[in-house]
Structure formats: structure tokens, C-alpha cells
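Narrative progress, year one. The postdoctoral researcher (J.K.) led the effort to move from monomer predictions toward full complexes, under supervision of the PI. The following entry was the first complex the group processed end to end, covering 370 residues in total.
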Amino acid sequence: MPHIDNITFVTGNANKLREVQAILSPAGINIRSESLDLPELQGTLTQVSSEKARTAANLLKCPVLTEDTSLCFTAMNGLPGPYIKWFMQGLGHEGLNRMLVGFDDKSADAVCTFAYCEPGKEPVVFEGRTRGKIVPARGPTTFGWDAVFQPAGFEETYAEMDKDIKNTISHRYLSLQKVLDFLKA
Amino acid sequence: MPHIDNITFVTGNANKLREVQAILSPAGINIRSESLDLPELQGTLTQVSSEKARTAANLLKCPVLTEDTSLCFTAMNGLPGPYIKWFMQGLGHEGLNRMLVGFDDKSADAVCTFAYCEPGKEPVVFEGRTRGKIVPARGPTTFGWDAVFQPAGFEETYAEMDKDIKNTISHRYLSLQKVLDFLKA
């Protein structure tokens, strides 16, 4: 419970900043952003996020929030997981589906990990997880792997969903709610 | 051309140390080893290796050699590449084959990257690459993914091959030859 009212969110993405502000500002937490090119480690989701937040807090010398996204295929024991960025870049939407052709289980978790860290302290990690499955791309293909992820209980992919609905079930939203609970506790 | 005769090879593996010594010692280069648990970055093969060697040289304050192994599936645009360790751990030999069921091209490169670095200097990276293909596991399954990699021009997998033959065509051998050429130049 850090009684903190100024936090730097490490992102170069104005949309992400707005989304974080929309949830945290009403609780009296002032969020500004800074774009930093931080090294990303290999490891578990928690390790990758923790080390990024620790590095950012030590560099910026202030409380920081970082965010990571993973896509974890059940049949592949949680992989590509934190490496999904490279697989999306290298294989595209069709390739992500092809990777699963040899597996019966097409289910996957979309995972968002926010990490909060103050300089010299241990990072705290908040994980939001949305169950779903990998499907052939449907909807706009402009935003990462949204077009191939269909959340459980819905007929649309993330890319096809109404944004207001997506924002109440998404892995990012679930993770951010945990951040909010922590910061206002 | 670093006229260096003492190098620390960062490994906890006595077999790897012996292999490196067998090739570099006759050239008058004295190799000792040190086991270090170094962070591994995400990125290209060259980035991953360079940063590991740079970190090790700065920590140990002496010239170092580090080694990384990748397995690059052609159909997957070089992936899993530097992340093969996680895929081998998470999926096993059968899973690596299953990942390729949806792709016609089963070819792959086994890649070994040695990096040499002196404290405060830029790392030099040496890549050895052996072409081959991914096959259902044959031979002893004790050494990483050797049982599913069949080098081009051979009927045996790495795991089935006579060690003396494997050692003259392997990605490690090819990379280490480049290290030798560099160090004795």
C-alpha cells in the first residue's frame, strides 16, 4: 500500500496511457508517461515484468508502472507466452493458427501483467487473465493478435468486439483493476 | 585480434569446457571456466549473445567467452530460435514436431553463437550454423533436442550420430572454429 499519487507509466503509446488514466485518475492517482526502450528478459511472465519495472524505477528514480502482454497456448504449456511479440512478427495471424494445427486444444489465455515498482524496492506484479481460443483471423488485423483471439463466452474475436465490451473483460482491464485495488488500499 | 592467452569460458558444463579446451588449447590459449547465472535477453541471436558476453566480462573483469544455442525453424521464420530452451522444456520432443504439423517445410538450422568480450569493449560474435530438419525423436533423448534434429546429408539424428562425426559438422564446432581463427589471427 504505497500512498503514492504520482506514477510514471512506461509507455510510448498514447492510447494505453489514456486507458490507464481513465481507470486510475478517478482514484486520485496522477499518471504521466515516459517512453523508455527497456531490455526484455527471457523467463516467466512474472520475471519478465518484475525486472522491467525494477530497471525502469532505478532509471527514472520514481515510482513506475510497466505493462507486458502474453498469449499463452494451453496445448503448448503456456508458450509462446512472453515471446508472443516475436511470433506475431515472424508468423502473422495465419502462422499462429498453423502452429496449433498439430494440437487438438486450441484454447489460450491472454495475459496482461502490470508491474509497480519504487526505486530500490521489490516490484509488485498484477496479472489479468482472459480465457479464450485461437481462431482464424476475423475483424480488423491492425492491433497485434486481437483478430485471432476469441474470448470464452463470446462469438466475436477481440478485434470484432465492441470496444466498450472488450474493455470490461479484457486481460488488460482485469490486471488494471488489481493495480487500482492495490494503489487505493 | 586480441593477443590474449587466458580466457574465461562462462559455463557450468564440464563437457562443454573440455570441448572448447580441445580446440583452443593447441593454439596456446588457456581456457578456464566459471559458472555464472546471467540474465538472458529477448532479441536476435546476436543481441542475446552480445549482451550476455558484455555482462559477463564486466562482472568477471577479464576476457570471456559465452555460448548460446538456438534452433531456428525455416517455416517459422527462424523461431523458436533463441527461445528453444523454453519450447524444449515446455513441449518436449513430440511437441516440437507437433508445432510443425501445419507447415510443409520441416527444415531447421541448428545455430551456435559464441561471443568473445573484454571488459568495457564491444563483444564479437561467431555464428556456426548447421542445416537440417526436424524429425520424430530417434536415438538417446538425454541431450536437449539432439534426437529431433537430423543434419542435412545424414540419415541419423544428432543423437544417433557417432560423436566424432557429429563434432566435425556440428553448429558448435563451426562456431568454435571461427573463435579459433579470430583468437590466433
